[in-house]
UniProtKB/TrEMBL annotation:
It catalyses: L-threonine + hydrogencarbonate + ATP = L-threonylcarbamoyladenylate + diphosphate + H2O. It is an enzyme of class 2 (transferase). It is found in: Cytoplasm. It comes from the Bacteria. One of its GO terms (cellular component) is cytoplasm. Its EC number is 2.7.7.87. GO terms for molecular function: ATP binding; double-stranded RNA binding; L-threonylcarbamoyladenylate synthase; tRNA binding. The keyword Magnesium does not apply. This is Threonylcarbamoyl-AMP synthase. Belongs to the SUA5 family. L-threonine binds at T40, H72, R127, A147, S187. It comes from Bacillus sonorensis L12.
Amino acid sequence: MNTTLWTVDSTGDLSTNYPQITQAAQLLQHNETVAFPTETVYGLGANAKSTDAVAKIYEAKGRPSDNPLIVHIADTEQLKEFAKIDSAQAETLMEQFWPGPLTLVLPCKEGVLSTRVTAGLDTVAVRMPDHPVALELIKRAGVPVAAPSANISGKPSPTKAEHVVHDLNGRIAGIVDGGPTGVGVESTVVSCTGGIPVILRPGGVTKEQLEQAVGPVMIDQGITDEKKAPISPGMKYTHYAPEAPLAIVKGSSEDIQRLIEQYQKDGMKVGVLTTEERAGAYQADAVRICGTRDRLETVAAGLYDALRSFDGEDLGFIFAESFPEEGVGRAIMNRLLKAAGHRVIEA
Ligand code: TXA
Ligand code: MG
């Protein structure tokens, strides 16, 4: 398949002209797949009402069919067609955080969306992305857009168009390049089907922010306790992993440097995932900086690009620094733990 690549300067006034966005929207209307930028990561979009279209997403990504998709909308009117809002918390969260990196799992109305979107569940995950290109594309397509992250299943999510090209060129109809995404980790997924809201996946909106808006919020035990099954089907899969095995080290940079040297002695090339503050402490075969510890948002923004950049370095092992599990640090550690297959070294 020939993949069309469009470039859009997302700082312009997108409501006028921009034939690239119209062309991409037309492909969505014709039930083809198009990758586009959101404020979190690039998504791989398709018409959520068409089983034909949605099947192409699963096929292109190699995604297990029991893992449901997030439906992206451009305005809340669109939502009422296929989802029910029967909790006051859902209303408040939508008002406060949309457009933005928050996905709400709501009761689904029957017969509107393809059942492949929800993988047969009676709930649907919905979000309104905070990105001008995404919003304009969905508006012009005139349909709700199902979109998982635009990576091959299991790989780190794409935060730049070149990551999408690397994974999916020739497998999808088009890619809209709107520059690097801002948040860098995916949206927070919150179940809002009555009772206390439950975080099914930590992400761009923090637990602290959610609680400020609606009071107590729980975290699904299945995402922190390896022995429990997560509620969200997608959270059980290994994800975000670079080619070389990775371990998180809870310890100082000296501890990590010692580990690097130990592994190098065995003739292995070793990489380290670090931050501005500590990068100077390492002598490794590949040193990658994902941001500064002072501002964990920068670590989130740079994490996937850094993880991807280890590939092709022929490394035998990668050590990653550990981050505090507060604010967006919860999402960072959740993704790192998955990338590490839960290997943690207490140094
Ligand atoms: O930031 C994001 O959320 C990005 C951008 C493209 O919007 N999308 C994204 O989609 O991360 P994906 O498919 O990679 O992750 C969707 C997650 C999966 O863990 C899936 O299992 C969960 O949402 N999910 C979808 N529908 C669900 C439902 N009805 N109930 C529980 N979990 C659901
Ligand atoms: Mg994904």
